Amino acid sequence: MSGGASNDPIRPAPADPATPTGRPESVGWPESVGWPESVGQAESAGQTEWAGRSVLVVGIGVSGAAAARTLLTRGARVRVVDAGDGERQRAAASRLRELGATVELGGLPAGPGGASLVVTSPGVPPTAPLITASAATGVPVWGEVELAWRLRGSADWLAITGTNGKTTTTEMLGAILVAGGLRATTAGNIGTPIVEAVDADPPYEALAVELSSFQLHYTERLVPFAATVLNIAPDHLDWHGGAEAYASAKGRIFAAEQTIAIGNADDPASLRLLAKAHGRHVLFGRELPGEGVTVTEGHIVDHAFGGGRIVAVRDLQVMGDHMISNALAATALARARGIAPDAIGAALTGFRAGAHRNAQVAVVNGVRWVDDSKATNPHAAAASLAGYSSVVWIAGGLNKGLDFDDLVRTAGGVLRAAVLIGTCADEIAAALARHAPDVPLERAAGMDDAVRVAASFARAGDTVLLAPAAASMDMFRDYAARGDQFAEAVHAREG
Asked: What ranges does the record give for the region Disordered, renumbered to this chain (predicted)?
């Protein structure tokens, strides 16, 4: 079909028979503890005999509730536990009890009890007593993603991870797959819970799957059709216990030799993980003459899968080098699956980034106001700042144990001024004093005050950029609420 997927997806090159079977120790691939013999396996049919099996689901949020519902429909005996006991948890508990689950709120048990499997929400760290006790007694601990893979159905998984850009790339890929004529959706860390996506009727042909390091940590046998690591920068080190463990979790996305592994030539950490992958290696990057998926003479070009010239960069609706990198990664994944170049080009030219991702809020008296509240770590903020030449920077929030020196050292040259909010304001101020001492800075009491102060610094031609480099939970419900308050304050000044 014109503009659609080709009849046959591009398959990975055959594995070297001398290569081990896709579980490289170098990326922390675990030896699967599997199921007890009485439960059976789902490797060929995509289904497990669940009736009467006892499963403990940890967490009653979106992924936990979806996992519980999926298990209940298969006849499992499901016990759900959650440390919270608020209005949201109680409402979810009521719905699950109606479906036959046992639900306990207000704390987690010390061990798995009589469960033969624990399915944990991704926010629960591996050091939690319940998780360590389960492992010690030989009870498998899966995440919702691993559960979905065991039930996977027929859809090809095209998986995306990285410190920054995951959501935008996944959304781009989802749009491309649909433009290519496939029944497809986004799933995983965004979109449809993946245990529901694999159960869809009619079934999906392909899934654009965003995977966080938390989700990947709790996988064992995941084999995406193709996968990419966009980039790696320090993040979530408290959860993982260090930078090496964090990168190792990301590397699990490349663990299977059947997976086409797509690495970012512009990111050294992504390349290190790609070097350890056992499947076919593919590169994307902004300057790769004659190879991979790259930019040549102002166009995205596919040298890896024979797609040739795809689309002119000037026709894209997204801004910044990091957004071009996202488009290159989405293109590589789509071409791996056999999506036609014209469908990719049409989807990319029509794509606009989601809210709070370098989203222009207003232009007032020649000053552009941009909301990148999604930039919740220094690496993301650096990528955002690199897209502008003169910036009044609104930054700060809840630091996740990360360092701001490299960010300020890199971005100091574009800063007209900095307006700092949140609990880590002093840390950013100290980094500015060390590396950009001539940049004026002022602390603000809240978002309305930050916008007022930023307006006093800004001149025609400047960009006032909310790129906090920190999490939001010290002052806001989440990054979206932070971005919304920024936009509201800007519009209030605009009148």
From this structure: 1-46
